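Take a careful look at the protein record below. Let me know whether the structure tokens fit the sequence:
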Amino acid sequence: MPPALEQLGKLAQLRILDITRNHLGELPEYLGGLTSLRQLLLYDCGLTDLPASLGKLRMLQKLELGDNRLARLPDSFAELAALRELGLFHNQMTVLPSWVAELPQLVILNADANPWQFPPASVVAARHLSDPSRDKSPHKTRASNQNQRERLGKAQPAVRTMTGSPRHPER
């Protein structure tokens, strides 16, 4: 982390941290101490690994990790119970962790452009996750997903998985 960003650890009330396109290579453990964070945006930062301390961000609702070189996520991310949006597009992920299906608030998962080998059975079986292989429209909106769920009689939220290659999703 560049010295100019070392002061971030002192911003206890910080809600949104966007350090997109800063080729950091790695993140410091102290970012896990920013427990008021709601959004952490880390597009295109050259990241190959993430500190386990980020799992302490219990109020985090949006985590964007697209355009990095991540091959895995720390197991501590299973504790991100408030997470609603997870962006993993354009990384090196081969296996989606099974705990992703257990994130109670997750409604958007953007995981395209990864060399996926297979999803865990628990993720495939999760009723609240949509199956992108059945989606004929690569850019379905949340509203059309809601309409589809209503037609199918499903009450649980679906995760929108983009199959296109948006370089920088909506913030």
DSSP finds two helices and five strands in the chain. Helices lie at 121-125, 142-152. The two ends are 23 Å apart (CA to CA). Strands lie at 16-18, 39-41, 62-64, 85-87, 108-110.
